[in-house]
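Hello, quick one for you while I still have it in my head. I'm working through a protein record and want to make sense of it properly. Would you mind checking whether the tokens look sensible for this chain? I owe you a coffee for this, so here goes:
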Amino acid sequence: MTSVGVDMEAMTSVAPNMSFRPAYSGVGVTHSSVDNTSVTSQECEWMLGEMSGPPPHYSDPARITISAILICVPILTVVGNWVVILAVITHRKLRTITNAFVVSLAVADMSVALFVMPFSIYQQLNNKLWALGDTLCKLSSSLDVMMCTVSIFHLSCLAVDRYLAICRPFLHERLTVRWVAIMLVFCWATPVFISFLPILNGWNHLGIEQLVACAFPPGAPVCAFIVNTAFAVICSLIAFYIPVLFMGVCNVKIYMAAVQQAHQIRTLEKAGNHNHYSHCKRKSKFKQESKAAKTLGIIMGCFSVCWFPFFITNVIDPLINYRIPYNPWQIALWLGYINSMMNPLLYYYFNRNFYHAFRRLLSCKVCKGVRDYEEDTLNTQMSE
């Protein structure tokens, strides 16, 4: 605690995300300092007067009920993504280079559930107060930014894979394990430079030091991730807008190539194809790649819809002096978190191989032994 007279029940915390909440209550502030930045009470009143107010203070039954509902999200996320990983391990048809990205994405989604969501639930249960220390606060914020970026980088790599499979099939055949490993390292290493590096060095506070000093005095029991305009714009571009635009372009090219190839196949069928085996093999491969591309397009669309409210709010809020209220922030944030829970459901409903693998796992047929299970799966696929 500091000597600054701030009403701590009015304090807000920004659950580890890229948002800002003012903690200043406007009562009795005489002096505050952060990183040698000093401001008077009059300056604080001027800077914080038009900002959004504190979050609602829930009663004990209300916050327990909300927390109990929210805790279902990480539990279902871990279970669903663990089933995805087991499906790829135990299902021969799913053990492909492409699904290496799917497994890594499932690990990222599980990390969100295990290392990010619990801190947000903790703050909700504790009425936004934080008693875990400044270091853990920064780490949780860094993990939040990192895991979101890791997820979208994986989706971008999957978009590249589907683009090569349909538009550049000969080049796709050269996609070796080595290249996939390099892409996976890129997906996990690059986000560190827009999460841990700037956050731990306080680059997100540059230019708003006085505002931080007023809103979140040192020692206050609050975990707030405050970002300046430059940080919000740059990180949002790298972590969301540019990858989404890239994936959109890839999907358009995939769709155009799929239409063209479908037309070529119909033309060959009408003209009569003397090499029946080659034609059937090409048609089967085209259908398989097209279905995989369709599933990926649905997953990308779901990701974009879930995270768009957060990232549009993240950019707008610093531009309008942090006036967006607390509840819209939390709704946008948890909508993004829920996306990590949805991917296994999308695999189940839109990918036949995952559908069969999930059913066998949930019915415990795999308990008979991986070898027997694989043979059963292979026979099922051949009979379809």
